[in-house]
């Protein structure tokens, strides 16, 4: 029977308490914690070390905090951790835990703690990150969902960051495949951000896995999300960028992936579309251009699936005028005036046709009065 007595230094409870205390000690950030661990080996050894030994690595005040008894605030937080762990499907992974993701161990500074809700086995399955713009186009959302579903069906885990737009579509696609998706959050695992994705987060915790390196109760902060991105790429063997503007945070994830030795893939788009600029930049810098899922699976040595549909799907229920308009529109963003010339339609007729096609999901209205066909 496993020893859960926190008073026994060898018990799992005591080891976990030491990891939590190390994370919660004021003045001990990630870099300092890893520096101490490289010298003393385990958190328990750090807390057993003398003030003099600790003073070689940290300030006097931090050394005293590490030498003294556990502060009341830390003990209270540890109680909240135990309450969180008592809920079904919740796990707290430390670097010495058997289920800690092996790829994260390769990072220069792995997370000290990984709060996980759901199927932790997914954290060790070969994975691909699918990331992109929060303000995605309808076509980008459709692409993210389709690629993620195909990657999941091929046996890969789909990893993303639970943001609006491409991230949410990627998680949804992963769940539609084999339920294989991991959401890495920039808040505590008990806080869902953005709130609009609360229902999706619950599905992920039930069918996939939701993870965070941030302490419970941590709210959204701008600095959390770039740091979170290193775990998204770190969990994966490759990253797919679906849509990204020139300054998109998704490009940070792609750069981290390249620095970590992961493959980077990008879906191209129109040269006129702002959300294609980031993908085109990645492709110029060496990312692999993809237009079907096999372009990802084959380099990763995963059995290829039938490629994502290349033929344009028929527009069921469209009349001849609407079909002609779709042929004229193609997949490039175009303004209504130019489209009227291309389609040879009167403005009033064109407006009605565009509205009908937009309501049917075949056309998307873009900022600036532009329209674009959507492959469904």
TrEMBL record:
Annotated NCBIfam families: dprA (TIGR00732)
Alphabetized InterPro entries for the sequence: DprA (IPR003488), DprA_WH (IPR041614), DrpA_SLOG (IPR057666), RuvA_2-like (IPR010994), WH-like_DNA-bd_sf (IPR036388)
Transmembrane segments: 112-132, 144-166
PANTHER family: PROTEIN SMF
Domain Smf/DprA SLOG: 92-298
Keyword Transmembrane helix: yes
Entry's family note: Belongs to the DprA/Smf family.
Residue span, DprA winged helix domain: 319-369
Keyword list, A-Z: Membrane, Transmembrane, Transmembrane helix
Keyword set includes Transmembrane helix: yes
Protein name in the entry: DNA-protecting protein DprA
